[in-house]
Amino acid sequence: MSNQNWLNTSKIPETDPLHEDSRSLSEGFHRYLRNHLGHFLSCAPYNIYEAMALTIRDRIMIRWFNTWQRHKQPGVRKAYYMSLEFLIGRALGNHLLNLDLEKETREALNGFSVELEDLMEQEPDAGLGNGGLGRLAACFMDSCATLELPVIGYGIRYEYGMFRQLIKHGYQVEEPDHWLRDGNPWEVSRPEYQQLVHFGGHTVHYKDKDGIERVRWADTNDVIAIPYDMPISGYCNETINTLRLWKSTATEIFNLDEFNAGDYADAVEAKNDAEHISMVLYPNDASENGKELRLKQQYFLASASLHDVIRLWEETDGADYSRFAEFNVFQMNDTHPTIAVAELMRILLDEKQLSWKEAWAITTKTMAYTNHTLLPEALERWPVSLMERLLPRLMEIIYQINKIFLHEVALRWPGDTKRQQRMSIIEESEHKQVRMAYLAIVGSFSVNGVAKLHSDLLCEGLFRDFCELWPGKFNNKTNGVTPRRWIARANPGLSQLITDQIGYEWVADLSHIKYLNECASPDNKEFHKKWFDIKQANKKRLAQLVLDKTGIEFDPKAMFDVQVKRIHEYKRQLLNILHVIHLYVRIKNGDTKNWTARNVLIGGKAAPGYHMAKLIIKLVNNVAEIVNSDPDVNTKLRLAFLPNYNVSAMEIISPGTDLSEQISTAGKEASGTGNMKFMMNGALTIGTYDGANIEILEQVGEENFFLFGLRANEVTELQQNYDPQHYINNDPDLQAVMNLLECGHFNLFEPGIFQDVINSLRSPYDQWLTLADFRSYVDAQEKAAACYRNRKKWVQKSILNTASSGYFSTDRTMQEYNNDIWKL
Ligand code: 26Q
Question: Residue 117: which of 442, 570, 490 has the closest Cα?
Answer without folding.
Answer: 490
